[in-house]
Design a protein that fits this description.
alpha/beta, 2-enoyl-CoA Hydratase, Chain A, domain 1, 2 domains, 4-stranded mixed beta sheet, globular, binds octanoyl-coenzyme A
């Protein structure tokens, strides 16, 4: 299927999704969410893909938020539906069995920051700008931002960002722990790809297990999380990759992971 509001590039083991409405700074509308939902299903079902990268088309924006022109026409129930739709799609990113990296190349405001927070971690261009400016529109974040930002950087910093509606630059976002790395704009994708390729060089079974355990553990208390880790650890040991990795170490050679899932 061809998309109009996003671009999906698959170059296994890496897939890249570009938000692609550059004239509206890649703002998120209903049609874009429908396409993103389908693209994420395709990525989840393709076992050759080991890492997803999310970025914005053009050099100005990752995503400048929900499409305000579309939002303004919605009645409260339509707004509730739209908010839930965005929440579900961003949860789908978070729930992918593979790591997802956001490459934030410009504005990541409102729904844009919420999209990036659905990813496992964020690299940003030093030109990137982050914020949840919904309060300036008389709104609140509605695509999971109130929950994910507080969980990622703590409620004190998240509340300041949400209550003031002020944007923060990439350096501040690094200091706050929103982003893992700040890059030169020209080298952002190169840096993200370097990390994506390093991740993709690891065994598929262990990679998926690690993603699942960290994610499920974050949604649980510590003891439950440790038990999840314990069970998945045992299961992971049954994989061919685990045998290969441990034997390769003892035989002083590089492992050759086949990534057999079943
Ligand atoms: N929605 C729709 N169009 C947008 C958006 C947006 N969020 N952001 C930018 N655009 C459009 C502009 O209207 C403009 O279009 P045109 O050329 O036709 O006039 C074009 O993109 C370029 O934008 P600007 O001329 O404004 O570019 P600047 O460089 O001057 O400014 C900014 C860039 C600072 C990013 C500015 O565009 C801006 O402030 N945008 C809005 C940012 C914002 O408030 N985002 C939050 C939106 S609300 C949200 O995300 C809620 C999520 C939860 C919703 C829950 C569902 C109900």
């Amino acid at each position: 299927m061809s998309f109009e509001n996003i671009i999906l590039e698959v170059d296994a083991p890496i897939a890249t999704i570009f938000f692609n409405r550059p004239k509206a700074l890649n703002a998120l509308n209903n049609a874009l969410f429908d396409e993103l939902d389908i693209a994420l299903d395709q990525i989840r079902d393709n076992i050759d893909i080991k890492v997803l990268i999310l970025t914005g088309s053009g050099d100005k924006a990752f995503v400048a938020g929900a499409d305000i022109a579309e939002l303004v026409k919605m009645n409260p129930l339509e707004g509730k539906f739209f908010s839930r739709k965005g929440q579900k799609v961003f949860s789908k990113i978070e729930d992918l069995p593979i790591p997802a990296i956001a490459a934030v190349n410009g504005f990541a405001l409102g729904g844009g920051l919420e999209a990036a927070l659905g990813c496992d971690f964020i690299y940003a261009s030093d030109k990137a700008l982050f914020g949840l400016p919904e309060i300036n529109l008389g709104l609140i974040p509605g695509f999971g931002g109130t929950q994910r930002l507080a969980r990622r950087i703590g409620s004190n910093l998240a509340k300041e960002i949400i209550f003031t509606g002020k944007n923060i630059n990439a350096q501040k976002a690094l200091e706050y722990g929103i982003v893992n790395k700040v890059c030169e704009p020209e080298s952002l994708m190169e840096d993200v790809l370097k990390t994506a390729n390093l991740i993709a060089s690891k065994g598929k079974v262990a990679l998926r297990s690690a993603k699942e355990v960290v994610q499920d553990g974050l949604n649980s208390d510590l003891e439950t999380g440790c038990r999840i880790e314990n069970n998945v650890f045992g299961l992971n040991m049954a994989s061919e990759d685990a045998k290969e990795g441990t034997h390769a170490f003892l035989e002083k050679r590089k492992p050759v992971f086949k990534g057999k899932l079943y």
